[in-house]
Amino acid sequence: MTMFPPPVTKGRAEISWRLVDDQMQPVDCATTPISSIRVSFGREPVTVNCGDDNKVVFQELAPDRYPLVISLLAASGGQLGQHLANVVVEGGKTAEYQHDFVVSSSGLESGDLRIRWAVDMMPAHLRCAALGAENVRVRTSVGALEEVDETIACKEGVLLIKDLTRGSYNFRLDMLSKTSTTVGFPATLRNIRVNQGETTEESVSFVSVLPEKAGLRASWTIGSTVAQDACDMVNADTVDIQVRTDAAGTINLIETSTSCKAGEFVLDDLPAGPGSTGMGLRVTMRLFDTRVGTIPLDIQTVRRVVLKAAETSTLAVDFQVEP
């Protein structure tokens, strides 16, 4: 006679959260930039509007330990805060878990951002005047968590932006003449993270003339397995690629992301170095599962990648992630 194992008794989980101030008193969603809360509990995430019921119930769960991610989201989709935990579900029982997010009376806690710039790889105070660049305008992209639009003398070479709501930002910087016409080419900063109570430091370099161009083809595998097959095995969905000048990585040139399964990404219009010497770059590639958080599964850095005019250089990395 065939024996069948007894059916597994399922459990459930109740995940709840509160917004509180430093005195643990409730904070109204309307006083914060929070638009919604996303809860991931070992399955597709559930999103609820901030101000609605602050609880999500997950039914029919097999007994196990489940990863929990609670994310606070702005209307633009940017992440304002996140909490990670593990919750044990037992058969026939309800696992209850609550987390308190501490926010200030004016919303989420803030941090500062200091942006420095050079021009043609030279100090701003030496190069701005020679180019007729009077000011630098610094702006956030459309849909930012908090709008920034500030203008400061180009020769200063630095701007401190205080009390930014913590989260990720994209910026565009323009050099302007006395008549507010654009000088040279804009500079960009992408995915800049501002943390609570900290000062984030970032640097860019303007170019006054268009340099010779080169390309870079970056490819990746995971545990020596092609990305098309390996990404699902390790639950990876995104690869971020950051290119910075020289081995020290002092100036950010570009930062972008693409699908993990793509297996490669080609960057065009990168500045090339002169003649046979080329320009040395540092390339950092990060592997993510963006569905559960912002902590990379693995990071690979390649130093002294040489770009030569009118050529496409190649590099390949092998991410190391346990399935």
Explain what you see.
The chain is mainly β. It folds into three domains: 11-102, Sandwich (Immunoglobulin-like), CATH 2.60.40; 110-206, Immunoglobulin-like (Sandwich); 213-319, Immunoglobulin-like (Sandwich). 5% of the residues lie in helices and 58% in strands. The chain contains two helices and 23 strands. It has helices spanning 124-131, 227-233; strands at 11-20, 34-41, 46-49, 55-61, 64-74, 79-89, 94-102, 110-119, 122-123, 135-140, 149-153, 158-165, 167-176, 182-194, 199-206, 213-222, 225-226, 238-245, 252-259, 264-271, 279-288, 298-307, 312-319. The strands form six sheets. A four-stranded antiparallel sheet has the order 3-2-5-6, with no helix packed on it. Strands 8, 9, 12 and 15 form a four-stranded mixed sheet that branches. The protein has a four-stranded antiparallel sheet with strand order 11-10-13-14, with no helix packed on it. A hairpin with a 2-residue loop joins strand 8 (110-119) and strand 9 (122-123). The longest helix has 8 residues, at 124-131. It starts with 10 loop residues before the first strand and ends with a strand. The model has no long low-confidence stretch (mean pLDDT 84).
